[in-house]
Amino acid sequence: MDKGLPQPGLCNCLAIRKAARHVTQYYDSHLAPTGLRTTQFSILARLKRLGPRTINELAADLVLDRTTLGRNLGPLERDGLVAVGVDPRDRRSRVLDVTEAGAERLTEARRRWTDAQRGFDEAFGGPQAAALRQTLAVLVNTDLGAAEPPGQ
Amino acid sequence: MDKGLPQPGLCNCLAIRKAARHVTQYYDSHLAPTGLRTTQFSILARLKRLGPRTINELAADLVLDRTTLGRNLGPLERDGLVAVGVDPRDRRSRVLDVTEAGAERLTEARRRWTDAQRGFDEAFGGPQAAALRQTLAVLVNTDLGAAEPPGQ
DNA sequence: GGATAATAGGTGCATATACGCCTAATGCAA
DNA sequence: TTGCATTAGGCGTATATGCACCTATTATCC
């Protein structure tokens, strides 16, 4: 009877990806009126909080691949929400900063985000949500390593 | 002192998305030798377990948008791992099924997946992982609703 | 049975994600 | 100071994700 086959619900990766899609669609529906996606909101919010940062620094904070963040900056820079400059102390680096327009957009988006958070807490439970965030924070800081190359 | 500004780590959406990226990269590194991404592996594994299903049915199971699954089928169909046919009882529907080549690829990928699961449990803790999966299953089945339209 | 509503997917568009390879700039050592 | 390793990003490519809008097909109601 399917001995050895993985049972539904046993895959850590599928479990978290399904949940991420579920939650993302919910937050996106709240943020939609602002014209920001959740990823864009995250970038703006973290950058605003951290202050000017390089691509590598911000990418690490967001657990984003460096090149992914680089591309995600495209729409934000195009719309004048994030400024990208060259670090004078290291001209290899790009310094990112939230523009005034970006800050205004962020303020508006934070209102929607607060609504989403409240709705989430009501549906899922505030304490459960806090516990889940804590667990996920531990997970993100857990070094899972990578697959060993198939060397002999 | 930043009163009212969301503190880092308070956003449910960012927390789960960061964790999803972290875990996805880990599982992808294990599955890479098979030529399958985690999403493709999920599709094959679920379809194999559920048996032939329509796009809508499989998409709901995977918490994927219908159109997203439709596009994700492209590479799988191109590589002959999934067969897409028309349901004779309802010619609007497409019936998906794992091909023989798909089943073989899946068997190979399951070995890598098992390694990844073992590594995950070792690093994060087996009981903690099981508890997290359970929590995420509850979350996925929690109706978060959607933002109310800005009606009058 | 024919008009109409509802459903299953497809397509255009835009963003999200990351690997591999490349160039530019910096750091370091002989 | 020059030569090489290291580091910061960019770019090509491919897949992932979902909304708005569209067609085809089926169900329903008079």
UniProtKB/TrEMBL annotation, chains A, B:
Statement: the UniProt record of this protein carries the keyword Transcription regulation: yes
Keyword annotations: DNA-binding, Transcription, Transcription regulation
Residues covered by the HTH marR-type domain: 1-141
Any Pfam family matching the protein: MarR
Top-level taxon: Bacteria
SUPFAM superfamilies named in the record: Winged helix' DNA-binding domain (SSF46785)
Signal peptide: none
Keyword Zinc: no
Name listed for the protein in its UniProt record: MarR family winged helix-turn-helix transcriptional regulator
